[in-house]
Design a protein that fits this description.
1% strand, single chain, mainly alpha, two-stranded antiparallel ribbon, 16 helices
């Protein structure tokens, strides 16, 4: 009897939480189809009973009467798909390397990289007056070369291994986003001075979002590659198959469910990202979150137009959530490669 009571209480709580989470989505959906009078004259809830649905808000939105919708949709789609593909591509290779190869990075070599990079940049910028983008490129290449050479020497001190490198990737998402976003804005502004347009451009936004999504891709893909049987790769190496072919022709097909799941998660993060798009774009390559944040006119908040923009923004994420849910229920994410 007690168990049945607890179940009923749990069911009531679950249904209440379901209503609490779904009602905002329902409200956005019905508001997008309301005429202005149905919004301004009080709360209306049920189509065809409380109000007569109309597509006028959608027509006004795509006609440009409530803001230019089409360019942000195209910009969000192109930038998100490109950055997701690059993040997963490079993240998969990095994750595979962290699983199959042993890294030993001496801490002093890393410190030397920082000293050479920062000190060299100050010298090039303040003393030799080299333009900032060129100075950054030179010190990064020079610092990396010095670090590689020093890492081969028997230096004292701690040695960082694979788990430390993985933590370094994940730690990139621990900093406040405004720190990296503002620094990136300053770098892009300096690049514009030497004729390289990165602000308000697709390459600039794709580069920023690729860096934004890469830590997630490495972190997620590492676990999937750990489940790929190493015996299959060893058998291929016996037949003199190169590492690159093993990765693309054996490992990637076996880890396809994990790659798809990682792509969906990274895509969701990039699609919803706001801060980088706010700082790095001004007009041509503004994304949907920026458009949604700017849906306020001199006549006040036109909730029917705001709801149309919100609905367009959340629909792709609903599709992603449904797709991931089906993959999880079918067991593709957990046991498909065992």
């Amino acid at each position: 009897m007690e168990t049945r009571l607890y179940r009923r209480i749990g069911l009531v709580i679950a249904l209440g939480w379901l209503f609490f989470t779904l009602f905002p989505l329902y409200w956005v959906l019905v508001t997008a189809f309301k005429p202005p009078l149905a919004v301004s004259q009080g709360a209306t809830f049920v189509p065809f009973i409380d109000f007569q649905p109309t597509l006028q808000a959608f027509a006004d939105a795509f006609a440009g009467l409530r803001g230019d919708f089409l360019p942000p949709i195209i910009a969000s789609t192109l930038v998100t798909l490109t950055a997701t593909a690059l993040s997963v591509f490079f993240g998969a290779m990095a994750a595979y390397a962290l699983v199959r190869f042993t890294f030993r990075i001496k801490l002093l070599a890393g410190i030397a990289f920082g000293v050479v990079a920062i000190g060299g940049f100050l010298v090039l910028d303040k003393v030799l007056h080299v333009p900032v983008p060129y100075a950054l490129g030179l010190v990064l290449v020079g610092g990396l070369a010095v670090a590689i050479v020093l890492n081969r020497l028997p230096l004292p001190g701690p040695v960082l291994v694979n788990d430390d490198v993985t933590f370094w990737f994940v730690s990139q998402r621990m900093f406040p986003p405004i720190v990296s976003a503002f620094a990136l804005f300053l770098v892009y502004a300096e690049m514009r001075k030497v004729g390289v347009q990165m602000l308000d451009s697709m390459p600039g936004l794709v580069l920023a979002y690729t860096a934004f999504g890469l830590p997630f891709a490495v972190w997620l893909m590492r676990d999937f590659f750990q489940n790929v049987p190493v015996e299959v790769e060893e058998a291929a190496m016996v037949d003199n198959v190169g590492r690159l072919r093993i990765f693309f022709q054996i490992v990637v097909p076996m880890a396809t469910p994990g790659i798809v799941a990682t792509s969906m998660i990274v895509l969701a993060f990039i699609w919803n990202e706001f801060l980088l798009a706010l700082l790095l774009t001004s007009a041509r390559w503004q994304t949907l979150p920026i458009l949604l944040a700017g849906q306020s006119s001199s006549r006040g908040d036109e909730w029917w137009a705001i709801s149309v923009a919100a609905l367009i923004s959340i629909l792709p994420m609903i599709v992603v959530a449904i797709f991931l849910g089906r993959m999880m229920r079918s067991g593709l994410l957990a046991g498909s490669i065992k």
